[in-house]
Structures are given as C-alpha cells and as structure tokens.
Predict the structure.
Amino acid sequence: MQALTNRSKVVSDKKMTFMERIYIPAILKGMSITIRHFFRKKVSINYPEQTREFSKVYRGQHVLKRDDEGRERCTACGLCAVACPAEAITMIAGERKPGEENLYREEKYAEVYTINMLRCIFCGDCEDACPKEAIFLTDRIVVSQYERSSFIYGKDILVEPLDQSLRIDISARQTEKVLNFKQDKRFAHNK
Amino acid sequence: MSLVKVTIDQIEVEVEAGTTILNAARIIGGNIVPPAMCYYSKLEGSGGKCRTCLVKVAQGSAKDPRPMPKLMPSCRTLVQDGMVVQNITSPEVMEARKAITEFLLINHPLDCPVCDQAGECHLQDLSYDHGLADTQTVEDRRTFAPIDIGDKIKLHMNRCILCYRCVMVADQLTDHRVHGVLGRGDHCEISTHILKAVDNDFSGNMIDVCPVGALTDKTFRFKSRVWFTKPFDAHRECTKCIGKVVLWKKGDEILRVTGRKDKYGELEEFICNDCRFEHKEPNDWQIEGPRKIERHSVIGQNHYEKL
C-alpha cells in the first residue's frame, strides 16, 4: 500500500540501549516541554468572569427592535424568512386594532415571530433583508439549554424590553452610510 | 381582413389591420412586449392612461415614412402597413419609461412590507425593471381617508394609480356599477357614492385586475405573504361562472382563491364571488395540479425543482 505521507516510521523491536532503558533522559525531556508552557502566555480565559472583546459586527442572538416611541418596528413582511437560508424564521401576521398604535408602528405586525436557534446559522441575511430596520443580530451569545424546544425563541425573548435603559444597543453595527440614509429626508416614507 | 406588415425592434410580423402595436408585440412575445399597467385585453376601452407602454414609431407606414413626432402609447396606436416600431432598442423609450415609473411612484406609499399584493404587484415588477433606486421628491405623499367598500374587498386608495381597470370591470361584468372615480386632478379617487358597499356577483374580479394593492381580498388580509403560499389549479361545478381557479394553499388550508392569470397578468376567465370568497374547504375543489409560476417571480422562491 502506498503511504499517504512520507512521515511514517518503520517500527522495529530492536533492543534499547542503557540510556534509553533508564528512561530518565526521556522523562526530563518531556518535563522540560511541560514546564516551559508554565511561563508562556495563557491561551484560555476564565469565562464567564472574564470575557473576550467581541467584534463590532459579531453575529449573535437576534433582537427585534422597537422605535424611539417604544413601538415594534417589525411589520411581518416575511422578507427575513424568505432570505433565511436555513429556514429558521417563521411568523404569523396580525392586524393592528384601534388603540394599539402605541404598540405597533404599522397596521400590520407580527403576532407570532419565532426563530429556531438550532437551525439558525447566524449569517445575518435576515438583518440585510429587513426593510424596516427591525431585526438585528447582536453580540449576545445564545445560551445553552437542556431541551431542544427551548431553542425556539419567540417574541418574548426576541423583542427588546420597553424600558429605555434596557434597550439593546446596536449603534455600533450601523455604518455611516446607514445613518446618512436614515437622515435623508427623501426616504421619510421608510422611517 | 387584410394583413399588414409591421417591424417591432427589428422583428417583422404580419398582423391583421386594426391591431394595436402592443398586441402585435404580444404576438411576437418575449422581452420586446411593452409593459402595461392600465391596458387589459379582456376589458373594452382600457388603456391609454398609464403611459408605461410608450414606444417610438420610427416610420409611420410604407406610404408615409415620416416618424411620429412623439412617443406613442402602444396600447392605443393601431399598426399600419410598413410601420417600424422601436421599443427596447430605443434609448429614448427606455428613458421615458423610467420617468413614467418615477411618476407613478410619486404618490405611491411604498408600503410593500405591509401590502398584500407584494410579490404579484405589477408596479413592483415595473419599478424593479425601470425604477430609480431612490426618490427625488421630498414632498409629502398624497393620502386619503380609508373608506369601507364592503366586507369582501379592501380599498387602499393611497396605493391606487388610477388605471380605471376596476371601473371597467364593474361596467362590463356587473349589472350596475356603484363605484367610480371621484374628484379631479390630484384629488381623483376610487370611491363609492355615499359609502355604498360594492356587492355584486362578479365584483371580486376587481381584486385580480388591480395592478397594484389598491384593491385586495379582505378574507386574505394579512394571512400570509403570497410567496409563502403554494398555487394549485383547481375547478368546481359553478352555475355562475366557469369555476376554473387557482387555489393559494399553505399546508392543507386554502388561504385564497383567485382567477387564472396568463403571462401578462391578465385573467383567463373571470370568476364569481361565490367561488372566490365562499369556498375555502379542500373538498369544495377538484385539484388539477400545481400551477406553473414564472421563474422570475418571487412566488417561485424556494421551489428548487424549477432551477
């Protein structure tokens, strides 16, 4: 059989020499490698006491944003679901009733909105597809769970809290181009 | 009938005298067919309003070879022997079409994420092909107070482009028309006289002929985006109409019933309201098979068998 690499060694059962038989040089050689690593820089950190710095555009758990007045931005247009390559997003739209104007921005809203975090591949296509700046990926990590069903995130987890101080900050993800677009009066219809 | 020879984008075709340029182009087919937002071959007198089908007539006829001075609406201009027409080969026409698209979109609310027509909207297709990526106007868009025109049809006047197709449906298919275009100029709106409900056996066809989302199905309102539903050809015995329809299903549930549209988005047969709104149980219908959807349509999204 042909060898895959030329690093293979031929094994022989020749008698070991005295130096090899006392093993001490081999032990010392091994220990020196181990001890040398004590003084190297550590590659691991003590998570969760310590955390690593995340990239500004790290793609972690999703958030469904509210606007400045606390209304949900999502209108259940379905573009995130059709853009999703893993088909992780499903939604059911509902019609806003009179008196709910402070809850939902437009006459249609997502009654049910679920993301299956086991299917999600965190590609960020939903964020790109969203015409209403409603869904964003954040630098939060999706926590581990004991059951598969707990990974199907509904609106209770995805929508950010009403309280201004608890809102999820996504300003770092917005490039100058996006901010300029938002300020342009010509696109007022899309705000 | 005498045959006349007409050349459209360097393709020669022989058509009957009295045919319009648009219909002559449809006989050739392909991408030289001008888009039409208001012309509807099944409705008499339609066309001439939206100006999206403008073409350049480079040679009027064999007898009088002078070009026509302006771009002509192809849905209303009749062919003449030896006529030479330019559509996609003329930069002037493409420029005009771009301007018309922008003009149609000036007062359009662009609420496609909310609109039920999104995905099968002709204005969406038109602006995708010819529209600008942004808008040049900063003025507020024209808005109308919502009007209730019945429990089956939802009117969103803000989205209307005043093509008059629905008015012609009411005139030509139903016994008495109760809605029409009120107001003048910028205040034109589709409405009923003193809030009368549109209630007629064939009034539902207004939904299908509407090129935008101005008239939509109330029983389907916000149920699903069209590209998440799967279309099936189906038929049933109906005493009022031909009974051949398309069912839009999600799972086993029938969410919507529409007429069958051809490749120009025009209904093959008009269907009655009984078929459209009242029969949404799977055993009401004989399913013939899945409906073929054009490749470019978003409705064909995720149907891998077509690739």
